[in-house]
Amino acid sequence: MREKYSDDTSPQRRTATIVRRVPDTAVVE
After folding, report:
1. Contacts (Cβ under 8 Å, ≥6 apart) of 19
2. Tens of pLDDT, residues 11-25
3. Could you list the residue range(s) of the whole structural domain that residue 22 is in?
């Protein structure tokens, strides 16, 4: 999973990762 974090350098990719970490919290807000 360290390879996926490397792609977090992009802002759009970081948002997608955060949304995946927060299943409903991010979607609800």
Report:
1. 26, 27
2. 566 666 666 666 666
3. 1-29
